[in-house]
Amino acid sequence: MLSIKNVIKEYGTHLILDIPRLQFENGLFWVKGANGSGKSTLLKIISGMIPFDGEVNIDEVDSKNCPTDYRRLVNYVEAEPLYPSFLTGQDLISFFIATRMANREEVNTLVQKFSIGSFIKNPIGTYSSGMVKKLSLVLAFIGEPRYILLDEPLVTIDKESVPILYELVKLYFGRGVNFIFTSHQAFELEDIAVKELEVKDHKVWVL
Amino acid sequence: MGAVVRVLRQVLVKKFYERNVGLLFFVFYLMFGVVESNQLINYHRSLIYGILTSPVFLLGVMGVWIFYSAKYLQLVLSELAEPHNQFLKDYSRLGKSQQFWPMLLSIVLMDQPVLLYSIFIVGVGIFSQQYVAVFLVLFFHSAKLAGCTWIVLRRVNSLHERKATKLFPSIQWPWKKYFPFFYLGYFTNQLPLALLFTKCFSLFAIIGFMQITTDHYENRTALMGLLFGLMAHAVIIFESRRLEETYLVFAKGLPLSMLKRFFFLSLFYGVLLIPELVLLALNHIVWFDLLFIALFAVFYLVYQHTRLFRGSLAIDAHTTFTFGLFLISFMLVLFKLYWLEAFVLSILGFYQYKRDYYNFEASA
Question: What is the CATH number of the domain that holds A57?
């Protein structure tokens, strides 16, 4: 279970989020909210990538006290990921496999599913934004996380890739992986209930 | 047209001066600070006469001017490749002449220090009737400015195509790249000229100091040269931090311990310093000393890198700090205490890194 306690996030003097208490049980969570409401900031806080006041932990593993163990439990992908243009997709995938101690065979399956094998050995600088997004989605599934955080996963990917993403979400959810995603479009997943939340007025409301 | 000029000034010219303020101060100091004030005019008049009367000297000076132009061209081309500057695609919608003049003005603004000194050269040349040399200087600058403008416009007009038109050859490594080499790959691929300048300056500084001969074994002369070389790495350190905050943000989410991250960072600077260390080894620095000098050099750079996690990522504060650290280190080297500095910097560097790595925010 992902637990958030007394989290306050400010940029300078501008308050972004003030969450006294929030828990994510197992499941799929769709975080909604207007532009600039703090959806991406919430995901970044959960991923442990930005500073904040308060506590976030997954199954009692605290993001501040046990940062390395905690990051093993969370994978996060930005809405518009940026990677060094001179690296190849293969370089990044190999690095993620090494750091997340992942199974290469499984990653090869992900590469095939998203059809990125044809360009994976080219420098990322030659990719279109859709290709970068697909690469980032492959990276999101590498390892054995408890939570996968996807910021606007449906943006820039082609319509052929959307069902593949849904299929993977279902597959990994079946293995006990939980998903938290932000999106302006609905996730059309059959058989799985998607719990909705909204970020509004610096708080997170369960709908 | 005023709006276009303003945008170019903000995006390109301002960025160039922000990034090179340290270097420009250094050159300004060399040109005007090292000479007695009452000798300054005579010194520069002699220098300018030399430029005007000696073709070889003039060629050498033109070479320096070309290097300077290459420096701002490289910055402009790399800035144009940045995602946040992709709005400049719209610049290609302007007509040819509407594109040319604002961009030429931006190039002139970046070339200002060279052009200002050249005005004095032309003035002295006309006064001393060195018309051929004056013509050559004017022709050189006109051709250079027009050429630079053309190169930049060519790049701007190809922004739609997503293919990079690089001015300088870059090295794309054929083998798989590992994390510490992500940094190195960035410099060989994106900023090859900055890397080349830094390494050349650093190696020449060591070679220069090694010319001072002593009648007994003395490693401090080499160390002083190395210190100047390390100071020249200020831009490399700053750019490495910028890389971390733009294209390596994803690495923050990976389950790597701080010790491992610190080791990777030290490994990157260790590899970067291999040419300097090889040069020292070839100059008969004993292996035991070389080991401590290597540790000193690596942690000197790592410490500055980790310090850039405090406050905002500002080049002027960084260059001031670099200069301050240089002065302290110079004294410690004189008293042969560099081993102690290496130890202190490694501890402080790791402490800073562990404390600030996840607390840094680019907008802070």
Answer: 3.40.50.300
